[in-house]
Amino acid sequence: MNEWGGGLWLALLLAFVVSALACRVLARHAARLRLVDLPDARKQHGAPIPLVGGLAVLAGFVVAVAVAGELALLGTVVGPALLMLAVGLVDDAQELGAGTKLMCQLVAAGWLVWASGAALHSLPLPFLSGHLVLDWLAAPLTVLMIVALLNAINMIDGLDGLAGGCLLIATAALGAAAALSARLDLALLAALLAAALAGFLLWNARWPWQARARVFLGDAGALAVGMILCWMILRLSLSWRGADVIRVPLTVALAPLAVPVIDLFVVAFWRAAEGRNPMQADRGHSHHLLLEMGLSTAGAVRLLWLAAAAIAAATFVAWRAGVQEGRLLGVLLAASLAYLVWFRLSWLRVRRQRRGDPATRVLFVSTGLGVGGAERALEQLLPRLAAQGLSVAVVSLREPQPVGARLRALGIAVHELGMAPSQPSPAGLWRLWRVVRDFRPDLIQGWMYHGNVAAHLARLATPRARVLPGIHQTLARLELESLATRAVIRLDAWFSSLAARVLYVAETARIDHEAAGYARRGVVLPNGVDAARFRPDAEARQQLRATLGIDGSVFLVALVGRFHPAKNHAGFLRAAAIVAGEAGKVHFLLAGSGISADNPELAPLLQDERLRGRLHVLGPREDVPRLFAASDLFVLSSIQEALPNVVMEAMSCGLPGVVTDVGDAARMIGDSGWCVAPGDDEALADAILLAYGEDAAAFAARGRAARGRVLAQFDADAVAARYVALYCGLLTGRVQAS
């Protein structure tokens, strides 16, 4: 391509758009094709993620190259790239053995070297001006270099956006080097591949509007895109059959991939030094180390992006300034050796901070594992703590319940003691003692009042453990609690003087409890929400509305929560009756444990004539995200809360809301909804009517603002990282146990 005109910008836009759209289209069919990445203990995600990003990138790249009329440029790479694509797809679908994958990589790399005639005939001598001639080793070493690059790219694909970003940086750097070397054909291809990778990153990286990756690159993407990148490096830097062009030094061409390459060799070296298989997957990579050091997922990814860009830019500038390739290589090797030592020392320090155990052991003791807000918060937290390297288990004082079953399915150890509410039994306490003695926790985390008291009792079985009670409500309406629960709260307050820290989900809860006699050693750690699970879902909205028998024009108002006097369901129903008398297209949805016509406190209100045919009483439900997806407005009518999970979950689904001014609810919702005084039925009804009558564009903007607030303040991964930092800090002395 000798001239770059407006057609280039069209091709770049096409590469980006096709890649981005292909991600969404292919994701819908990923499960049927078995191209999904399932969660396990090594991985951060808690739900299956489509492995179709690589296919989308290739689609965007190939379509853009075809529109630019330059498909002929891809000649020698088509076969090896298709082989890697096929191998990767099979591996993504059913997991090939490591030996089989390596053999296929060697075949594809050999094919590329044979077809192109490119070979690494000499190597620069570090810090010197000469070169080492390779003779007959040229082709074999070139093949090994390609295989190493493929595996480096594949292995760095461990955090949302990391591999895609590194590939984008490398491709952009190669394109710049090609352009300055008058290699406009390669510069064009690199630019189009970078644009396609950018379209993929729209769905793969974490952004303010996206809490986690929606698609992954997959082995198919890492290997196929990696092969194309290797081909570009060979064309740019090595002798090419029949080509008489300006060549970029190999060190300069490889520098943009320094982050994945250095990580590959450092990790493989230390695995081999410990007598382990160098290619065995684990959580020992550079990005895992950054997470252990306290960085968030997004922070670790952006730091590694910055490192990749900085290395590429520094090497590029030095090359243009006339620095000899041997010196450049020497500096990079010296930096790699320094990183090798730092990497090892850092991991040893992390292990020492964990007191020599394979993982910090945290035992959670919860009042129960039903479907309440505190229990759902625990369900969000535990898999994320396990993914960050902690060894976690949970004890429920109650009989088997739904959240316990779901946690067990995720591989979390769950122990249910079978005790009745507020009725400790000798058999249950003996089982608790046995669990603690077997698990040997470093920390015992209480969860709700009864769980907190049991956590303190459990410490008798392992005195070295530290106890952290967890508080999930305020004391604004203590009279609503039973006499037994009030006694447990007083006992928990007395025990709190023995706690390392007392954890609260809201600042208002901390203030209330410390005023009531709890030790002044509180830490506020909000609950988190899985924004990938709780999200707007047009398909679920349509399906559930069809099930309920309502069309898209109906304004559906939802209240989700277990029956308890503090939730004030009666007040919501009275407000709903007022609204129903004034607005004809409004329906109401109630879901939660204890919500039914058999409830004697709700039955008279459910029979209100104004609500006939417009009230949907669903009882306990496991599909809360679908309920919110089908709704237009959520309501919190409580007269006592701390940091209500249901508010975060509804906001994460893009719903504006009406909340009562309890706990931190007003701070949470901000200007994305309306806040009224607790217990004021008429004010609640007026706010619902205001929402119903608001301009459609303004109402939609509130929904977007609601989800944005959740992503910014209550992301489940960020909350889990704060727990890990607190736990490790207590065990290492960085956080003092008061």
Largest sheet features: 6 strands, parallel
Question: Domains counted in the coordinates: how many?
Answer: 3
Which percent range describes the beta-strand content? 5-15%
**Strands of the largest sheet, in order across it?**
15-14-13-16-17-18
N/C terminus separation: 69 Å
Q: State Rg.
A: 29 Å
The total count of helices amounts to 28
Helix content: 40-55%
Assign an overall shape.
globular
Quick one: how many beta strands?
18
Quickly give the structural class. alpha/beta
User: What ranges have pLDDT less than 50 throughout 5 or more consecutive residues?
Assistant: none
Tell me, rounded to a whole number, the average pLDDT: 87
Describe the structure in your own words.
The protein has 738 residues and is an alpha/beta fold. It has three domains: 15-252, no CATH class; 363-528 and 722-732, Glycogen Phosphorylase B (Rossmann fold); 538-714, 3-Layer(aba) Sandwich (Rossmann fold), CATH 3.40.50. Helix content is 54%, strand content 10%. The strands form five sheets. The chain has a six-stranded parallel beta sheet with strand order 15-14-13-16-17-18, sandwiched between helices. A five-stranded parallel beta sheet has the order 7-6-5-8-9, with helices on both faces. β8 (443-447), α17 (449-458) and β9 form a beta-alpha-beta unit. α2 (53-67) runs antiparallel to α7 (184-204), α3 packs antiparallel against α4 (98-116) and α6 (162-180) runs parallel beside α8 (218-237). The radius of gyration is 29 Å and the shape is globular. The N and C termini lie far apart (69 Å). The model has no long low-confidence stretch (mean pLDDT 87).
